[in-house]
Amino acid sequence: SSSSSNSGSSGSSGSSSKRPPQPLAHIVTSNLEHDSILEPLQVLQRHGLAEVTIVPASHATGAVDVASIVAALQPNTCLVSVMLANNETGVIQPVAEIAQAVRAAAPSVLLHTDAAQVDCQSSLLFLFPLCRPLKKRLPISQGYW
Predict the structure, then answer these.
(1) Which strands make up the sheet holding 25-30, listed edge to edge?
(2) E-assigned strands of 6-107?
(3) Contact 29, 41 (CB under 8 A)
(4) What is the pLDDT along the chain (145 residues), one digit of tens a residue?
(5) Is pTM, for the whole model, over 0.85?
(6) What does the angle CA 25 – CA 81 – CA 93 come to, to the nearest 5 degrees?
């Protein structure tokens, strides 16, 4: 049967050198994200491939609280994804501040932002603090810096 084949291939040979199970990857995002971000994360979580924490935005401001994002970080967090501008409310999220706080708390965590709702010129202004460390590594035109 396939279940016995799976148990045999999973290393259950009675050996005492079994590795402890690795924690699942953890991803932090906000409840404001577009379905193109949320739905794949929900699939990963549903299939047991990742843990996902969805941080709610403030009802008063419509923005995600930087401290709430940092508080959601776990030792196995690998990615934080927060949109730059909400496509329904127009509220600009504090992406640069989130990036700085996440980098200070967990430097190895990757950062992602969906900036599709913001024009290029505005994006550069808001993302400059995020992109500045990349200037040394990427061949970017001097006109943008």
Answers:
(1) 50-55, 25-30, 77-81, 110-112
(2) 25-30, 50-55, 77-81
(3) yes
(4) 333 333 333 344 444 567 777 789 999 999 999 999 999 999 999 999 999 999 999 999 999 999 999 999 999 999 999 999 887 888 999 999 999 999 999 999 999 998 777 665 554 444 544 444 444 443 444 443 3
(5) no
(6) 155
